[in-house]
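Step 1: inspect the first sequence and its tokens.
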Amino acid sequence: MSDTILETAGLTREFGGFVAVDDVALKVRTGSIHALIGPNGAGKTTCFNMLTKFLAPTRGTIHFKGRDITRLKPAQVARLGLARSFQISAVFPHLTALENVRLALQRARGASFDFWRSEQVLSVYNNRAHELLFDVGLSAFVNTVVVELPYGHKRALEIATTLALDPEMMLLDEPTAGMGHDDVHRIVELIGRVRAGRTILMVEHNLSVVEGLCDIITVLTRGRVLAEGDYATVSKNPEVIAAYLGSSDA
């Protein structure tokens, strides 16, 4: 059995003649935490959106667990075990933390989210929802309406809702963006805890996060792969230093 869970070949995306992602070959090892880094405009988010099917590639292929998912839709790849979070929090702001996680758990019932079901019927999901909220450090905020949560707690809640889908692979889009030091530390610990039995691919700007968490790092610049390896390897690469580590947002 292959140790590669996600693989791209020749992945390319053009926008009106501008090549945002150019012939990217990516291999993500099963069970690893793999980071995509690079300066602003490097093509990280475009690449991420193609992997999760929010953008169709102009050319190239994407395989997940050996299956060609290039032409599938986002919901289809999520059902295969590939789930993502977003850079901007994507939870329901006027529901409680518990209700948000429970909605994600309800996905197991099939195509319906059962909005019309009684509270008693939906209570079967409560135990697992409480477990997931405990796992992400939100036990004290079970009944808090999300709009009242601090930003870092909202990001933790989004990871909980992603975990509720029980994905084999999680894609995290800048999970520590906009956070203070304490929140960053909490999210790093959280990702380290939930990696067991999963593969994680993340876009991240905070290099201390990447250094402490990630097994493999792929560096993009101008839409192409510049370097790949562990942090010690890529951080010493002169081209990486020039293109990313020495840039103003490094």
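Step 2: inspect the second sequence and its tokens, then contrast the two.
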Amino acid sequence: MQAVTGETDCYGKSANELGTLIFENGAFTGTLNRVTGYTGFNSDPSEQDGYFLPFSISDDEEVKMYVKDSAKQVVCDKAPIVNVVFLGASKDVAEKATLKLVKNDKTTTISMGGITFNDGITKTKMRTKKESE
């Protein structure tokens, strides 16, 4: 498994737009950005705004993934195709999400404890009319 970085296309958003991640020793670290209007990921409006984890996997055997419901496992695409998972619409939900990979009926939980979730709100100082004169 690898983090996807830079300008790599992740179904209409670049990896940089989703965040900056590193995958080492079975864990992700870095930052995920809150993304809105991500229609390339899913046509379901409830999964178009929030936090998305891009990764690639190069494994000879079939690997499945899921975040919330093991009954909804999907087969991972092999690298160079990017996989993207929806972690949640809000920071609170995304922080609690876990990515599970299933290979040969063995489930591995991928740690995401080192990820910071950026809510995308930039605080700026409002200038008064007097300051701008």
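Step 3: confirm your contrast with the notes below.
The CA atoms of residues 68 and 97 lie 7 Å apart. The first strand starts at residue 2 and ends at 3.
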